[in-house]
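Attaching the record inline, Q. Sequence:
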Amino acid sequence: MPFSYHSHSGEFCAHAQNTLEEIVTAAVRKKMQTFALTEHMPRDQQDLYPEEIDAGYSDKKLLHIFGDYYNEALRLQKTYASELNILIGTEIDWIRPSSKKFIENLFSTFQFQLFVGSVHHVHSIPIDFNAEMVGEARRISGGSNERLFEDYFDLQLDMLESLKPPIVGHFDLIRLKTEDPDLSFARMEGVWQRIRRNLAFTAGYGGILELNSAALRKGLKEPYPNAEISKVSHMTYRACK
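Structure, as predicted:
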């Protein structure tokens, strides 16, 4: 029963490839049963990534692109209904407490069948773009990776408590651009306590952690979540790909 609940296309996302329809037809060829379309939600002007700024994007343009994505997703869902169960959703980005209002407005405008809850920023700084930005977020956290990781998982808990996302995206994304992305979280008591806390909360409301292999494509040795988290969490959560 092949399925996927997290996807992006180059048509509507600056860091992906292929059109949305090409992705859908690839899923059909692979005989997948269920495939979710989850392009990134639009964001405020202050939260654009450098690649989006370089491309001349604005917050208004991102909202327009997202509307185009939604309409294309509806078309594809109808066109391929006999071949693939397509779910229409989005990947939300929890940046700060005010993100909740922005996300609620998005949910009132578009009718989603699911959403992926993710954290891509700490202290309003992207932590999945480059090492320099991670360094700035680390400085604000107090200068150590341990403090940065604690802040990341605290922010993740804010997102979990506020939205209770059905799918939790790349649970430990914070390690991607650090000096040692294959490090052990369990050696840092405060970080490990927060990880276990977030896993327990997710299990408590019935959330699902995705198993995200993008980490392997980006040079990491293990997917999200890494092995040590998975060994703990297999008793407390359900996983999806």
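The first helix runs from residue 20 to 29. The chain has a mean pLDDT of 94.

More tomorrow.
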